[in-house]
Design goal:
The protein has 211 residues and is an alpha/beta fold. The chain has seven helices and seven strands, in the order αααβαβαββαβαββ. Strands 3-2-1-4-5-7-6 form a seven-stranded mixed β-sheet, sandwiched between helices.
């Protein structure tokens, strides 16, 4: 456990994310809960703890510097990534984690309770059916759908100032080429996730739909 904690703290530092001892302990508790639930509910194909740390925790933390505002939607959150780690880092922000998979949403709700994350709402719904009263400041999606389709689905969650963070593996040049107005890709950021020998890119999109 000490080696795991050290790897988490070192990886977070490399990403420019300062983790307190309490935050690191809570993130490892999240992996404990995921490991336990995964035996019965098959929430993630990744079962090796070292890979969980890199592929789930550090991969999620890699986008923390790009989140803005006070309200965040994580669409297609699955078992709660990146939403749960991001919510743990920023208790002042409100997070709505959306997914249509009921068993995964039950885990998200359980994990939020277990970690005392009162800033997390687990929403069991198809993203394209959600109509919030107010737009979110940031919308984040990890490997959720092809970029043009994803932007169409999240449009009702967005206002003129919303930042959409699309987490991708290899640079999806074909998907980027398919993005049409009123959407625009403002920035493409290569990400290096410590311990993860795979390509990662963050695409940051904005929209003028509701001006």
């Amino acid at each position: 456990m000490a080696d795991e904690r050290a790897a988490l703290l070192a990886g977070a530092r490399e990403l420019g994310v300062a983790l307190s001892d309490a935050a690191a302990a809570a993130l490892l508790r999240l992996l404990d809960e995921l490991t336990h639930w995964n035996r019965a509910y098959n929430l993630t194909a990744i079962t090796d703890r070292a890979q969980m740390l890199t592929h789930h925790l550090l991969d999620s933390l890699s986008v923390a510097p790009f989140v803005q505002g006070s309200t965040v939607a994580d669409v297609g959150t699955g078992a709660g990534f990146p939403g749960l780690p991001l919510a743990l880092l920023a208790p002042q922000r409100r997070f709505v984690l959306m997914d249509s998979n009921g068993k995964k949403q039950r885990f998200v709700a359980h994990a939020a309770r277990a970690l005392g994350l009162t800033n997390v709402e687990a929403l069991h719904a198809r993203v394209e059916a959600v109509r919030p009263a107010q737009p979110f400041d940031t919308v984040v999606a990890r490997a959720f759908a092809a970029l043009p389709q994803m932007l169409e689905w999240v449009a009702p969650l967005c206002g003129p100032g919303t930042r959409v963070l699309a987490m991708k593996g290899r640079l999806p040049e074909g998907e980027i080429a398919g993005v049409a107005p009123p959407w625009q890709i403002g920035e493409v950021v290569p990400l290096h996730v410590p311990g993860l020998n795979e390509e990662r890119h963050l695409l940051i999109a904005t929209c003028r739909l509701k001006e």
